[in-house]
């Protein structure tokens, strides 16, 4: 079953990445499409309002299904989140892709619960496999994908029965996406890794604190925007309509499309050249506004953007190589916002090489603790994060 889940989730991610790449190119070639973002938002909101049932809860639905054994995740989640995310990117929303891949993988995997009459414990393993396959295939990081699914969904409650299926699904999904469908992934590199001295490692700590606080700000921004929109606008389809107006106005008056979409070119640039110090703040605000108002997509790539550009900005004060600080922010903000320091450390080593592992691990751990008791996923179980209360 893990093999089947890997094939399904890897194929779904491949189709999604190809469609997303096409949508991004079309938008960049036709910037006027951003003016239609409010109408796209209304369409997405209406589809979820009329046909989405509880699919609108996204990743939180996967977590609740795992924790509480709720009803099977509806298959409709896959096409809804797929097309919702594509239209969000086509018309200029600021969002990521991980949430879509994870939701598609989880919803496709959970269909096996009905087909094969799985027990509650087996269902949990299959959902974990779906999350593992979706994450691994969308980023090209199978080890991190498997660890993310275990760490994200079962904080301090690892079950040995889940480990092998999660890794198998992750590797198969990654192979299917990259070699079966021929879909590649963005390459990043650290140009200089300093000596592993006490002083250099000590400088990672203030950077990690900044990444943790940034992660908390990112998570709270999305939650606050969502709460305000739900309180002020009672009819759900109007929420992304209004959010689309605000995002389109920001793009119009700023005169740049740098901060919408995935922002991958800017992430790559953060490893190479100094950037404006406020990049990470703008991306945090636009992503919170986009997703909080009801558009669809993931948070992880915007977290990469936020972390990499914040690390880039910190290079003016912290005497570590710019590319290394960008890499530390890349994984550190992600770690703090999702409470997955192990997965982030491994992802960093898969993307940047094992030579930077100690720096990456330290930044992820510090950011994890200093992000506080918050998460971009409202249903995530983080009660055991601290021995003390924050």
Automatic annotation (TrEMBL):
<keyword id="KW-0812">Transmembrane</keyword>
<dbReference type="Pfam" id="PF00654">
    <property type="entry name" value="Voltage_CLC"/>
</dbReference>
<feature type="transmembrane region" description="Helical">
    <location>
        <begin position="349"/>
        <end position="370"/>
    </location>
</feature>
<feature type="transmembrane region" description="Helical">
    <location>
        <begin position="125"/>
        <end position="150"/>
    </location>
</feature>
<feature type="transmembrane region" description="Helical">
    <location>
        <begin position="77"/>
        <end position="95"/>
    </location>
</feature>
<keyword id="KW-1133">Transmembrane helix</keyword>
<feature type="transmembrane region" description="Helical">
    <location>
        <begin position="162"/>
        <end position="181"/>
    </location>
</feature>
<feature type="transmembrane region" description="Helical">
    <location>
        <begin position="316"/>
        <end position="337"/>
    </location>
</feature>
<feature type="transmembrane region" description="Helical">
    <location>
        <begin position="29"/>
        <end position="49"/>
    </location>
</feature>
<keyword id="KW-0472">Membrane</keyword>
<protein>
    <submittedName>
        <fullName>Voltage-gated chloride channel family protein</fullName>
    </submittedName>
</protein>
<dbReference type="InterPro" id="IPR050368">
    <property type="entry name" value="ClC-type_chloride_channel"/>
</dbReference>
<feature type="transmembrane region" description="Helical">
    <location>
        <begin position="240"/>
        <end position="262"/>
    </location>
</feature>
<dbReference type="InterPro" id="IPR001807">
    <property type="entry name" value="ClC"/>
</dbReference>
<feature type="transmembrane region" description="Helical">
    <location>
        <begin position="201"/>
        <end position="219"/>
    </location>
</feature>
<dbReference type="InterPro" id="IPR014743">
    <property type="entry name" value="Cl-channel_core"/>
</dbReference>
């Amino acid at each position: 079953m893990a093999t089947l889940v890997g094939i399904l989730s890897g194929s779904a991610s491949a189709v999604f990445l190809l469609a997303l790449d096409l949508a991004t190119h079309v938008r960049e070639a036709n910037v006027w499409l951003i003016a239609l973002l409010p109408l796209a938002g209304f369409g997405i909101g209406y589809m979820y309002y009329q046909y989405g049932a509880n699919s609108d809860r996204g990743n939180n639905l996967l977590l609740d299904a795992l924790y509480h054994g709720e009803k099977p995740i509806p298959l409709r989640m896959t096409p809804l989140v797929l097309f919702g995310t594509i239209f969000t990117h086509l018309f200029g929303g600021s969002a990521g892709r991980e949430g879509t891949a994870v939701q598609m993988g989880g919803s496709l995997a959970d269909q096996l619960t009905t087909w094969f009459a799985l027990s509650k414990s087996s269902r949990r393993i299959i959902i974990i496999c779906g999350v593992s396959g979706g994450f691994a295939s969308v980023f090209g990081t199978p080890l991190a994908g498997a660890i993310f699914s275990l760490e994200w969904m079962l904080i301090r409650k690892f079950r040995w029965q889940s480990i092998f299926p999660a890794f198998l699904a992750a590797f198969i999904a990654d192979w299917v996406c990259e070699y079966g469908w021929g879909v590649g992934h963005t390459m990043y590199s650290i140009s200089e890794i300093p000596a592993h001295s006490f002083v250099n490692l000590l400088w990672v700590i203030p950077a990690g604190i900044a990444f943790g606080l940034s992660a908390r700000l990112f998570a709270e921004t999305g939650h606050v925007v969502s709460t305000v929109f739900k309180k002020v606008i009672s009819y759900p389809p109007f929420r992304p309509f209004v959010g689309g107006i605000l995002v389109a106005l920001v793009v119009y008056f700023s005169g740049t499309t740098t901060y919408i979409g995935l922002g991958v070119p800017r992430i790559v640039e953060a490893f190479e050249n100094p950037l404006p110090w406020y990049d990470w703040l703008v991306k945090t605000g636009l992503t919170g506004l986009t997703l909080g108002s009801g558009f669809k997509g993931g948070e992880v790539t915007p977290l990469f953007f936020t972390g990499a550009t914040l690390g880039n900005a910190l290079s003016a004060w912290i005497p570590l190589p710019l590319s290394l600080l960008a890499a530390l922010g890349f994984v550190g903000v992600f770690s703090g916002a999702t409470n997955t320091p192990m997965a982030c450390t491994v992802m960093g080593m898969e993307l940047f090489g094992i030579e930077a592992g100690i720096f990456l691990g330290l930044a992820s751990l510090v950011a994890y603790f200093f992000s506080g008791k918050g998460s971009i996923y409202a249903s995530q179980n983080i009660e055991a994060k601290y021995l003390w209360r924050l």
